[in-house]
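User: Before I run my own analysis I want an independent prediction to cross-check against. Here's the chain; please return only the structure tokens and, at the end, one sentence I can use as a sanity check.
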Amino acid sequence: STSPRRKELMLRNYQDFKVIQSPFDENTITSNNPQQLCQLKSSKKGEAVFINEKMLTISSDTVVSFKGKIFEKPKNPAEAKYFMQQFSENTVTVYSAASIFVKNIKNPQKILDTINKMQFLTQIEIIKHDQYNEISFIGYCEIQFTTIDEDQITKYINTSEPYDKAGGFGVQSVAAKWIQGIQGDYYSVVGMPYAAICSVLDLLLEQ
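Assistant: Structure tokens:
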């Protein structure tokens, strides 16, 4: 992932890594299921890097879901405006999938047991491929928005803020002033289920 927010999170506990942009075109994946969509995108992005680099690889993808619709990064101001109008005075769900690729896992059950004890995670699995293993899970969080008036939306969509974030907002940026409640895995809104990723990484680095 080339997300600056994900990089900043990883730097809190790990320094020895490099950021690589995946060659996989995530626009080739479509799904009406938000969990399936972010999981597939995360998996395919990470797999493409792992196959090239042959080193432990972490990838992630984030989507926002509201009333059965999926909200990814807004493509233009009109779309960003629509997103904010929809979210005003409503609650949305954010899903962040994580995929960790590694050649060998000595104790897969210990990893599964560790993640399964954590809250606000779903779709937890270890997939054994021919030459490597993929540890996969999704973090989720509900975000409650206060009223966002039209003048504020107009100012907001004329900045660069909405266009590199799923749903067009970030809890750590300008949009924070409209967020009145958060229930779930906070860091999934920032861009990855961070605590679970760290738990898995620490176990993998021990082996």
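Sanity check: The longest strand covers residues 133-145.
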